[in-house]
C-alpha cells in the first residue's frame, strides 16, 4: 500500500493552504497564487539547488509551527525555508517585508546599468518587473558601476556581465540540463563574475537554455539580439519532430519572419520543457514548424498587450460614404521603401541603415555580424558601455 503523505497546514497572508511536508513557503504560496506569491530572481523550480542567493523572496514567519508558535527572529528566504504544520507567514500583509524587499532591490541594482531602453531583455525582464513593483525610485549609490566587456560564448550566445545579477541559474542549468558545465562563477564579492574558463565556448547541444533561465539581459541569443523589441513580435506555440528534444517551442514572429525561438514558459516565467540548440537557433522558417496557435500570455507583461484573440474588425465604410471612391494616399510607403524586402530572420545580425539601402541581406557593420567569434567581443563599439548593442 502506498505510504500516506504527511500534510501540513500553513497560513500565508491570512490564507490557509494544505501542502505536503517538505514543501517550501514559496511553493505553498504558489499553490495559493495571486499577489501573495513572493517574487523570485534566483529560484527556479525546474532546477535543483537554486534559490537562496538573491533574497527577493524574503517573508516573515510570525509563528513557526503549532508545536512552537514563536516567530522567527529574522526574515527568511521563502524559497529555501520548509513549512511546518501551523506555520503563519506574512508577505504583502507586513510592511516590514515590503520595506526589506525595497532594500534588496536597491542592492541588486547597485551595479546594474538599468539601461532598459536599449536592453534586449526589456519587456520580459524579471528585474525590470521587480524594480517597478518593489523598488524605490532612487538609489543612494554614488560610485561608478562595474562594467565588463561582452563575451561571445560560441556562435549563439553572448554574455554581458554588466547586467548579470549572479543568480547562478545559468550555472545550474548548464550542470543539470546541458550536462556539461564549462562556465561558473569566478572570483568573489565585487569581483564575482560568470565566466567560461579561458573563455571556452559552450558546446552542449542544450546550452541555449541558459538564455531562457537568465532573468536579466546578461545572456542573450545572438541570432535575435537587437533585431526587434519583444513587444513588437507575436508569440505563437509551435512544434516539430525533433530527434534531440520534445520540439515544443514558442516562436516569436514578425509578419512571417521567425525572429526568435524559445522554450515555452509557465505562469511563473519558468521553462516548461527544455529545448535543443537546433530548434532554438537553426529553425528560423515558418515552414520548419507546425503552428498550434497564439500563445496565451498569462503574466502581466507588455508582451500580453496588443495580442488580442477573437477581435472583430470594424466595417470599412470609407468607400461607402465617399460614393465608391478609394481614399487618396499621401504616399504609398511600400513603393518607395525596401522595408518589406528585408527578411530579418535571414540576416546575420540586427538591421542597420545599410540593410535598407538596396542590400536587404546586409546587416551592416554591426558587431553582432561576426557569428564565428568566441571570447571578447570588442568590435565596433565600446563594449564596456551597456548603452550600445
Ligand atoms: S536586464 Fe535589461 S531590461 Fe532588465 S532591468 Fe536590466 S537593463 Fe532593464
Ligand atoms: S548570466 Fe544570467 S542566469 Fe547567469 S548568473 Fe548572471 S543573471 Fe543569472
Ligand atoms: S528567490 Fe529566494 S533567495 Fe532568490
Summarize the model shown.
By secondary structure, the chain is of the alpha+beta class.
Q: Into which percentage range does the β-strand content fall?
A: 15-25%
**C-alpha end-to-end distance:** 60 Å
CATH architecture of the largest domain: Roll
Number of strand elements: 15
The topology string of helices and strands comes to EEHEEEHHEEHEEHEEEEHEHHE
Give the bound compounds: iron/sulfur cluster, FE2/S2 (inorganic) cluster
Radius of gyration: 24 Å
Mean pLDDT across the residues is: 84
**Helical coverage, percent range:** 10-25%
Shape: globular
Instruction: Determine the CATH topology of the largest domain.
Output: Ubiquitin-like (UB roll)
Biggest sheet strand order reads: 2-1-5-3-4
CATH class assignment of the largest domain = Alpha Beta
List low-confidence stretches.
Answer: 365-373, 378-384
Number of helices: 8
Overall domain count: 4
Counting helices, strands and paired strands, the structural category is alpha+beta
Largest sheet data: 5 strands, mixed
Amino acid at each position: 500500500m502506498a505510504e500516506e503523505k504527511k500534510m501540513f497546514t500553513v497560513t500565508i497572508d491570512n490564507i490557509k493552504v494544505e501542502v505536503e511536508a517538505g514543501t517550501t513557503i514559496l511553493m505553498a504560496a504558489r499553490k495559493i497564487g495571486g499577489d501573495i506569491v513572493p517574487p523570485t530572481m534566483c529560484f527556479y523550480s525546474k532546477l535543483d539547488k537554486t534559490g537562496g542567493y538573491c533574497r527577493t523572496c524574503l517573508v516573515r514567519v510570525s509563528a513557526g509551527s503549532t508545536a512552537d508558535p514563536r516567530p522567527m527572529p529574522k526574515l527568511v528566504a521563502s524559497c529555501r525555508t520548509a513549512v511546518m504544520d501551523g506555520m503563519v507567514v506574512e508577505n504583502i500583509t507586513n510592511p516590514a517585508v515590503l520595506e526589506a524587499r525595497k532594500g534588496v532591490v536597491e542592492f541588486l541594482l547597485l551595479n546594474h546599468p538599468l539601461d532598459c531602453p536599449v536592453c534586449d531583455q526589456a519587456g520580459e525582464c524579471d528585474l525590470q518587473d521587480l524594480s517597478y513593483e518593489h523598488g524605490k525610485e532612487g538609489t543612494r549609490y554614488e560610485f561608478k558601476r562595474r562594467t565588463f566587456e561582452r563575451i561571445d560564448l560560441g556562435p549563439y550566445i553572448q554574455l554581458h556581465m554588466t547586467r548579470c545579477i549572479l543568480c547562478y541559474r545559468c550555472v545550474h542549468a548548464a550542470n543539470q540540463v546541458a550536462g556539461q558545465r564549462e562556465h561558473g562563477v569566478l572570483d568573489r564579492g565585487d569581483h564575482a563574475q560568470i565566466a567560461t574558463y579561458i573563455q571556452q565556448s559552450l558546446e552542449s547541444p542544450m546550452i541555449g537554455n541558459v538564455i531562457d533561465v537568465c532573468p536579466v539581459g546578461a545572456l542573450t541569443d545572438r541570432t535575435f539580439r537587437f533585431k526587434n523589441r519583444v513587444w513588437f513580435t507575436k508569440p505563437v506555440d509551435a512544434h516539430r519532430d525533433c530527434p534531440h528534444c520534445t520540439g515544443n517551442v514558442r516562436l516569436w514572429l514578425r509578419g512571417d519572419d521567425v525572429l526568435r525561438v524559445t522554450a515555452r514558459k509557465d505562469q511563473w516565467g519558468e521553462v516548461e520543457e527544455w529545448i535543443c540548440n537546433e530548434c532554438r537557433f537553426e529553425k528560423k522558417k515558418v515552414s520548419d514548424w507546425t503552428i498550434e496557435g497564439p500563445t496565451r500570455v498569462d503574466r502581466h507583461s507588455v508582451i500580453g498587450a496588443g495580442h488580442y484573440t477573437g477581435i472583430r474588425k470594424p466595417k470599412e465604410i470609407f468607400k461607402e460614404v465617399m460614393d465608391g471612391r478609394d481614399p487618396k494616399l499621401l504616399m504609398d510607403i511600400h513603393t518607395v521603401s525596401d522595408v518589406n524586402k528585408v527578411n530579418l530572420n535571414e540576416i546575420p545580425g540586427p538591421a542597420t541603415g545599410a540593410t535598407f539601402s538596396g542590400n536587404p541581406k546586409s546587416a551592416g557593420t554591426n558587431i553582432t555580424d561576426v557569428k564565428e567569434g568566441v571570447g571578447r567581443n570588442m568590435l565596433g563599439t565600446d563594449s564596456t558601455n551597456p548603452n550600445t548593442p
